[in-house]
Specification:
The protein has 162 residues and is of the alpha+beta class. The protein has six helices and five strands; from the N terminus they run ββααβααββαα. Helix content is 61%, strand content 19%. Strand 4 and strand 5 (106-114) form a beta hairpin. The radius of gyration is 23 Å and the shape is globular.
Length: 162
């Protein structure tokens, strides 16, 4: 865990030196840099447990949670260009994980939905990926650290949406 501290040193005579750490102000730039590196490492570790690309996994997860969406809605939600999302959707469709159909309200627009095969594949993938993370949290973190992580998760969510 990263704690920002400054060190104060006091002398109490010729032989005694007292050093103590005093909590300092958080340097937002340093924290942002360290957070980016730590999250990057965690994402790479999760990717190693993942059978899909991150974008594909995000799209499948979003369709599972939110239901049918247009390619434009998916692109906006994942903060990618519509052209990039169209390629991701095509790849997932070719694998039988999603199905595309015309929007009944606007035939120019395509709607994308998770297929049953996609749902089963996503659930198996989640069990594998989340199994590693859940084991790591349970085995490597103390109860106090797990509580801190739970609180930090909501902060990370807010940051991801800003």
């Amino acid at each position: 865990m990263i704690i920002y501290r400054k060190t104060e040193q006091f002398s109490c005579g010729s032989r005694c030196i007292v050093v103590r750490e005093v909590a300092g102000a958080v340097d937002s730039n340093r924290l942002a840099s360290e957070l980016r590196m730590v999250l990057g490492h965690l994402v790479r570790r999760l990717r190693a447990e993942h059978g899909f690309s991150l974008t594909q996994g995000a799209v499948l997860g979003r369709l599972d949670r939110e239901g049918t969406r247009s390619i434009g809605e998916l692109a906006a939600a994942e903060r990618v260009r519509p052209q990039s999302m169209a390629q991701t959707v095509s790849d997932l469709e070719a694998d039988g994980l999603i199905a595309r159909r015309a929007d009944p309200a606007d035939a120019r627009r395509a709607l994308v939905a998770l297929t049953e095969h996609g749902r089963q594949t996503l659930e198996a993938e989640r069990r594998q990926r989340e199994g590693w993370l859940a084991r790591a949290i349970a085995e490597d973190l103390s109860p106090a650290e797990r509580q801190l992580l739970a609180r930090a998760t909501s902060l990370l969510q807010r940051l991801s949406e800003s």
